[in-house]
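Quick sanity check, Nephrocystin 3-like N-terminal domain-containing protein:
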Amino acid sequence: MSFGYGVGDFLAILDLANTIRKRFVNAPSQFKSIADVSKTLSNVLRDIEDIYIEVGLSIQQQNHLNDASRACHDVLDDLQCKLNIYQELDPGNKRLGGTCRRVWKRLKWDQAEMGEFQQRIHAHIEVFSLFINSLNSHVAFATKEVVDRINHTIDDHIEQKIADWLTPVNYAAQQSDFLSRRQDGTGRWLLGAKNFQKWIDNDKQRLLCTGIPGAGKTILTSIVID
C-alpha cells in the first residue's frame, strides 16, 4: 500500500523530521541531547509509516494523525531555523554527489533554549506514541497521566482535540481490575513507610516512586488511590 493525499500532513512532518535527524549526524557533544530526542521522534514517525503501509488507517485515524502532524510542524520548523544559525555550507567539503556538506559553526547553543526544544519535541513524541498504542491495542491506564501533562503544557487547540480523543477510558473499572489482581499484603511496605506517612499527612507535596517496567508501580498506585 502506498501513501495517499489523506495523510499529506504526516508525510510532510515525516520528511522534515528525517531531514533534521540527518543534520545532527556528527554534531558536537553539546547537541547530543537534542540530537537524541530528534532521532527518537523520527523513529516513532517511521513506526507509524510502517503500520500504515501494512494495515492502513481509517479516515478518522488519518484525520487524527494529520492533526498531530500539523501541531508538531511548528516546533520542527523552529528547530530547523535554529540549525541554520549553527550550521553553514562548506564549499571545500563535498559529498560524493558533489553537493556541499554542512559544517557546525563554533557557537555555543543556550542550554535553556535547547531544553525548551527537547520538552516540546518530547510532548509530541508522547502524542505519536499514544497514537501507535491506539492502533495496536487499547490505550493503557497510564494514558490519563500523559494526557493530563499534555493538557497543562500545550495550549494549542489541535493538541487539545487529540487529548480529548485519547481519554475515553473507564478508569474506575481499571482501578477495580488492578485491585482485584493484587496479592494479600501487597504494598504494605509502602503504606507503612515514614516518607509515605509524611507525604499523605501534608498537602501539595509530591512523592516519587520509581521502578523498572513490570516492578508493580501501577498496582502500588491503585493501592494508594484506594
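Posting the structure with no commentary besides this: The chain has two domains: 5-169, 174-225.
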